[in-house]
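Continuing the batch. This is chain 6 of the set; chains 1 through 5 are on the previous pages. Same settings as before, nothing changed between runs. Recording input and output for traceability.
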Amino acid sequence: MATARDALPDGRYGRSRDQRTDRGLKIVGAVLGVAFLSLIGWFGYHYVAGQDVSAEIIKSKVVSDERADAHVEVRKERDVAAHCAVRALSEDGAEVGRKEVRLDTGSDRIDTVVSIRTTSRATAVELLSCGVGD
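Output for chain 6:
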């Protein structure tokens, strides 16, 4: 009894159309994947390299109903002047005080205490922004 073969003999007639299509899709996918990862890397590098000033609030303290203090640490290039904005918030999240400070050149790491006058008792202090400029 003879059995009928459903497929062609392996290697006798070359690759099938499906195998050629699969190989082409794999190549296109690999190229697009490498391009995507390169693009993500490029954006990430320029985002990090473009950060001229970084700052954070180390700690804050509400001194009285009219004042809150914030210990701010700023890292920047030595010859760059920076400015930072700090605000005080009340319990309901409303802004009750704001202060902008200018940090002159001469040091690449600055620790400073910013005192903010408030209109009512503050419960939190927030760093709004820090950037390069006058």
